[in-house]
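[User]
If only I could read C-alpha cells as easily as an amino acid sequence. I have put the entry right below:
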Amino acid sequence: MLGEYNTFVKDLRNIDIKFGLIYPNSYSVGMSSYSIRFLYSYLNSFENIACERVFLPQKIKYPASKDYQSIDIIRSLENHLLPRDFDILGFSIQFENDFRNILWILEKSGIPLSRTERCDSSKHDEFYYPLIIGGGPVATSNPLPLSKIFDIFFIGDAEPNLDVFLQYFMNFKFDTQNINKLYKDLKKINGIYIPHLKNETKRVFVKDLNDSSIPIYQIMAKEKDSASGFQDAYFVEINRGCPYQCKFCISSHHNRPFRNRSFTKIKQILIEAVRELDIEKISLIGSCVSSHPQFLEICECIIKLEKNLSIPSIRIDHITSKTIEVLERGNIKTITIAPESGSEKLRFELGKRITDDQLFDIVLKIRESEIRNIKMYFLVGLPNESENEIIDTINFINKLERSGFSKDSIRISINPLIPKLNTPYEKKVDYYFENDLSNLNEKLAKIKDELKDLFSVKLKIGDTNNIVKNARLQTLFSLGDETVSDLLLEYYSNGANLGALRRAEKMLNFSINEYFQKIHNCFNPWTF
C-alpha cells in the first residue's frame, strides 16, 4: 500500500460483502488497467462492500503445489486478506496467457480449481468457498475454456449488471445460502453466463458512456519510474469500442457499438481531477482515442491544465501535422501505431486501408518533430500471406531504417496472428496445424535474420520456435470449448509449460490438431 494514492482500507466489521478484485498478472501490469481502477472505485462506493486488490506475486513456480513460498505472498493489498477469506473473487481476464496465473492464484489460496469440487465441498464443510466470477474481453470472447473453473462470467460491460448481481448475492449470503437458487436468480440477467446452467446470454453494454462514471479519486501509484509507464497517470476513458472493423480485432467486434463520452463531460472530469488531485500525467483510455470527434480539443484541454499527456496507439490515418504538433506540446515522447503488415495488400484485406505512401509520409513527419520514438506492431501468419508479403514487411522495415531516426528509436514488435472467436478471422487456424507450424516459424526466423543489427530499428523477436508454440496454445484457449477446459487443468497441473501441454494431450487423448480441424470446418464453440 505504500506509494499509492486514493486507496480504501475499510473496517471489515462493518462490511457485508468482501470482494477480492484480482488481476492475474503483476502489480505494474494490473495497475495499468482502467477496468481495475474503475471497478475498485465503483465497488468501494458501497458502504457495505470492501473491494480489495490481489495481484500475481513475482517469481512463481507452476503448479502452486510445487511452489514452496508461503501462502502469505498472496494477500490483498488493503487489509492483507487471503483470497479464500473473500465472499467473491472477481478476475479481470484480459489475456489467454494469464489462464495459468488464475489457476495458480486459486491453488495457492487453498481453493479447489474445479467448480464442481468447490460446490461439493461446501455441502459438507461449515464454510463455503468464494464465488469465482470473471469478466473482461477474453471472457466475453469465449468463457468456455475456463468453464470448469469459474462460477459466473460477465459477458460484455459490467456496469449494467453489477448492482442487481450484488443484490442477488446479498440475498444468497444472508438468506438462502443455496447456490442453485443464486444461479437461477442470476440466469434472469442478460449478460451473465453460468457454466453450471449453460444458459444462453446476450452481451450487454453501456449505451451512453456518460452514464459510466470515471472515478475522480482513482488509485494511482506514486512511483514515477514504473516499468509500465502508466501506473502514475490519471486515466480518463473517452470512448469504448472501435468504429473500424479490422477483421482480427476483438474490440471492433465484441465491444460494439462505438461510443464516445461527451467533450463537456470529459472537460468537467479533467478540471475536477486536476483541482482535487496531485496529477502530473493524464492518460486517455479507449480502443481508438483518436476517433473521438473532439480528440484534439481534449488534448488541448489537458495541455492548458499544464499536465503531461499520454495516449495508447493511434490510428495511422488520424496522424496529421496538427496532431503531431498537439502531441508534442503534450510532452508525448513515443507514438504507437499498428501497420500490422508491410504488405499494402494484406493491410487492405485486414481492414486497414492505409497505403505505404501514407505510412512513410507520417513517419517522416514524426521524424521532423520533437517526438523521437515510434513503436510499431506487426502480425505474421495472416490469411493469404505468402513469401512475397514477408519480403514486403522486411523491405518496409529496411526503409524505416533508412528514414534517419536515432539509435533504437523505432521499436518494432512482431507476433503471430491469434484468431479470436466471433471475429471474421475466427476460423483462420491454418498456420497452427502441426505440419504447418514450421512455416510460421520460418517466416518469423526470416524476418529476424534479415533485420538483425539495425541501427535505428529495435526489433522485438525472441526464440521463434517458442513464440509459435505459445501462439498455438493461445489460439487453442481463444477458440476452445469445454473439453479445452479439461486440457487447461491438466496442462496446469503438469507444470504449465510446453512439455506439460504434450503430457496433457496424451493423458486426455486430446488432439489439438483435430480440434483445429473442427474449427476450420466451421465448428463454433461459443457465441453471444
Observations:
- The two ends are 39 Å apart (CA to CA).
- The chain has a mean pLDDT of 94.
- DSSP finds 19 helices and 17 strands in the chain.
